[in-house]
Amino acid sequence: MRGVPVAVVAWALAASASAQDFSPVPVRNYRPYSTLFLRFVPGRPPLGLGETEWSLGALAANQVNYVPNRTFRPVAVEDIELDRLDVRYARGIGKGWELAFEAPIEDLGPGFMDPIISWYHHTFLRLHTIRDKVAFGGHQVFSPAGGPFAGGFGVGDTSLFASKSLGGASFVTAGLKLPTGDPDALLGSGGGDAGIAGQTGWRLGRHFGLTVNGGAVVQGTAARLKHTRAIVLQGGWTLAYAQNSRDVWLVQANYEQSPLIEGIESLDKVEPSTTFAYRRALSERQSLTAYFTEDINPLNSNFPSGANTGPDFVIGLVWNWRL
What we know:
Elements: H1 3-19, E1 52-68, E2 74-94, E3 97-109, H2 114-125, E4 140-143, E5 146-149, E6 153-155, E7 158-167, E8 170-178, E9 193-204, E10 208-219, E11 231-242, E12 247-256, H3 265-268, E13 271-281, E14 286-294, E15 313-322
Antiparallel strand pairs: 1-2, 1-15, 2-3, 2-4, 3-6, 3-7, 4-5, 7-8, 8-9, 9-10, 10-11, 11-12, 12-13, 13-14, 14-15
């Protein structure tokens, strides 16, 4: 009988550990050109047979990026904010398979974050002065690929996904993007994309988890842009710390090739970003994740060159409800 209390405690600890969610934050690069094309976001393994899940992701991504030529007149400008709601539905269909549908509702325009980011840069980074020379409320995108675009509001390109569990935390996903967004308003590329991705993860003791992911996307030629890259490679990693069975803190890095090849080094290189997140289990079937993303590379020790082409500032919330 002495072993009964010990067994109960061990069972409780195991149940608590099994409830911990070490899965990555479902985020991508929200640069205006990148959002036109299919991308795979990291996430949890496929659902079981008959399980369904709704996910709502609300975010604001603000970017100012001026690329000058030798006379300091810009040859590329990205000064715009993306306010976006991602609606995703997934269902497990058995034998490790899951089908999912995702549709974004987007508003590309002046946004609300310009003064917030200016304060943030002056208060914490003290490295970026470009916003001192740019008026608040800009919403314009142009480059050698095309434009100018002023953005717009509406449904973006929708995507379909099929995932197959490989056992444990490993799975593969195939994706197809449909051209449902208006390419004139930067809501879609005007063409279809397809790709495949994989993800796996490991438990590192009781409180830590590590996840890695990678994928490749075959991009269809954009209707209103030139220089579409034929194949884009993407990948990333996530380190999660489970404070307890309900609270998880995450650091995540995402890397992907630029969607276009424009002949400008700073625009054509790999685009890294780093996300810091907190996830709270609201119940056994609901969770809420808050995150903040910076366009920096955590593996680059030369910080000034760590600022990259992605959005300067992304804030977001993701709510998941499993049925």
